[in-house]
Amino acid sequence: ARMRVAVVGAGVSGLTSTKCCLDEGLDPTCFEQSQDIGGLWRYTEHIEASRPSLYPSVISNTSKEMSAFSDFPYPEDFPVFLPNALLLDYLRRYTERFGLREHIKFGTTVVSVRKRPDFATTGQWDVVTEADGKQTSHVFDAVMVCSGNFSEPSLPLQSFPGIERFQGQYFHSRQYKHPDVFQGKRVLVVGMGNSGVDIAVEASRVAAKVTICTSRGSWVMSRVFEHGYPWDMVYNTRLMSLIRNNLPGPLSWELINRRMNQRFNHENYGLQPEKSCLVREPILNDDLPSYILTGRITIKPGVKEFKNNSVVFHNYPEEEPIDIVVFCTGYDVSFPFLEESVVKVENKHASLYKYVFPTHLQRPTLAVLGLIKPLGAIMPMIEMQARWVTRIFKGRRANMSSPMYQNTVQTRCILFGLSFDEVLKTEWLLYMDTLASFIGAKPSVLGLLCRDPRLALTIFFGPCTPYQYRLRGPGHWEGARQAILTQWDRILKPTRTRVPASKSSPCLSLLTVVGFLLLLAAVVCGF
Fold first, then answer.
1. What is the mean pLDDT of residues 106-110?
2. For residues 115 and 141, is the Cβ–Cβ distance under 8 A?
3. Sorting pLDDT into bands at 50, 70 and 90, what band is 244?
4. CATH no. for 4-151+332-432
5. Phi and psi of 300, rounded to 5°?
6. Lowest pLDDT segment from 279-293, 374-388, 409-423, 504-518
7. Where are the beta strands (DSSP E) in 161-242?
8. Which stretches of 152-223 are DSSP H helices?
9. How many CB atoms lie within 10 A of CB 366?
10. CA separation for the pair 170, 29 (Å, rounded)
11. Sign for the pseudo-dihedral over CA of 335, 341, 342, 345
12. Who contacts 508 (Cβ-Cβ below 8 Å, separation ≥6)?
């Protein structure tokens, strides 16, 4: 009999998990509490309990070539960065293309996932679901938790003295939909994540005054990077990753510091992060620097206390009058359907091997997907997690009860506990390569250098697009080579609309020479 797998949620993680189960010949059932797919990316005007909430202007932070599932490129006429409606459209096409819908049970909530009494030998789970007020019990051989971490808003009001006497309006960013609530108001945005800056920028077009307060500062990057190319296609290349990961710490900090301050000096704009915040993800926003420069937005330090109609900042003598506060204080991660003992989340840390498998289960038959915040595209990363997980469920690779796994857990618990505030410095490419090597899908640049030099050089110097992980190994896709060699054409197609698009990719003359020398050095040193 085929192994039965329960998939919780039909967002990005749930869809790709269902597909990977089918690829491995497993039998998935995906439970989705709402009536449609898309999770976070499905915009609804009203806010639904225990579902993520999106504001209509959300655009993806990663470019379409870097964000595609590895065997399903985006249509070439889609824009380079995707408005949420088009991203949802892509997910619908993916669902259609791989026949996923028939495996999804809509309007079904997972109430509980419990180990069966004979778990130590079978690894099976009792799963209770609810639909139309009726509960049903099922037995599954494995469970993939794909419920995301943007449903439980974190609003630590106790950290903001005086908030109880503040007479204006305040709400969590999850409640935000349209900027008209800020019309003519003095607005304070607390916290400096991507949503906070997006909301501040939108508010500043209609508000009387907008202030962002942040105790830690942050790097701000633009989607439009060097020479107008998408930031992640320049940043996430094998060459750049090799340089970043082999430099000593202080030098690495210096390199990033210089790179980030190239566009504008963060210190002059009140944004420079402390050195210890190197691990925080940068903010991607194309407007913030010019809005600070034109006085639409002011940056202040953290909140000391609230008064009736004003706020006092740390190290700032005068009060600032405000009418409305938006708390962009992030989300708590929670798995209400799991027992505490399965995934222990203690002060926002959970002990998960490679951020996926709970470290203390006797059998690796439950996996948590998509809980990682890399500096790079999340979709192909979750897909890679799902490819690895489904291989392990099938018992193909990586016997996780072996001493090797136990040792890794002991030594890596500290490194691989995951934190949602201090986003771990997860090097996107290293993590992708690590999981890919577990399943035998990591591309071999040196191997290709002899057989297909053009492809090898594109892979090494060019962006690390997800198609690289379909060149070999399980799930090998015939179209991968072609997708890699035409990646820049799909980036240029939607923007070169006035002149005919000629084939082109960024010229890397000097960098290519330096990189080639590095590659030779790496070969000599047994890279």
1. 98
2. no
3. confident
4. 3.50.50.60
5. -130, 165
6. 409-423
7. 169-172, 186-190, 209-213, 220-221
8. 194-203
9. 24
10. 41
11. positive
12. 461, 515
The Cα–Cα gap between 429 and 440 comes to 16
Q: Which two tokens stand for residue 144?
A: 């993939």
Q: How far from chain centre, in Å, is Cα 432?
A: 13
- 155-222+263-329 has the same fold as 4-151+332-432: yes
Query: pLDDT band for position 490 (50/70/90)?
Result: very high
- The mean of the pLDDT values for the chain is 89
Residue with tokens 């030594």: 411
CA nearest neighbour of 65 among 269, 201, 231: 231
How far, in Å, CA of 375 to CA of 310, rounded? 36
Q: Which amino acid is at 46?
A: H
Which residue ranges make up each domain of the chain? 4-151+332-432, 155-222+263-329
489 CB contacts (<8 Å, ≥6 apart)? 76, 501, 503
| Alpha-carbon span 262 to 311, nearest angstrom | 33
Whole-number Å distance between alpha carbons of 66 and 75: 13
Structure tokens at 501: 């698009």
Compute the residue count for the chain: 527
Q: Does the pLDDT of residue 414 top 50, yes or no?
A: no
**Tens-place pLDDT, residues 311-365:** 999 999 899 999 999 999 999 888 999 988 888 776 666 788 998 999 889 999 9
Tokens of 318: 């005068």
> What is d(CA 198, CA 192) in angstroms, rounded to the nearest whole number?
10
pLDDT in tens, 442-478: 999 999 999 999 999 999 999 999 999 999 999 999 9
Contacts of 251 (CB under 8 A, 6+ apart): none
Asked if residues 141 and 296 have their Cβ atoms less than 8 Å apart, the reply is no
CA-closest candidate to residue 222, choices 290, 300, 173: 290
Q: Where are the alpha helices (DSSP H) in 306-425?
A: 378-393, 403-416
Count of alpha carbons within 13 angstroms of residue 164, beta-carbon side: 3
Ramachandran quadrant class, 264 (left: phi over 0; alpha: psi -120 to 50; beta: rest): beta
pLDDT in tens, 205-224: 999 999 999 998 999 999 99
Contacts of 394 (CB under 8 A, 6+ apart): 3, 24, 25, 26
Q: Please determine, for residue 397, whether its predicted confidence score (pLDDT) is greater than 60.
A: no
| Residue position matching structure tokens 């577990």 | 438
pLDDT of residue 202: 98
Task: For domain 155-222+263-329, give the CATH number.
Answer: 3.50.50.60
Write out pLDDT tens, residues 22-80.
Answer: 999 999 999 999 999 999 999 999 998 888 999 999 999 999 999 999 999 999 999 99
Which stretch of DSSP H or E encloses residue 484?
Answer: helix 480-485
pTM of the model: 0.91
Q: What is the pLDDT of residue 417?
A: 36
Sign of CA dihedral 74, 76, 77, 82: positive
Complete DSSP assignment for 99-155? T-GGGEEET-EEEEEEE-TTHHHH--EEEEEEETTEEEEEEESEEEE---S-SEE--
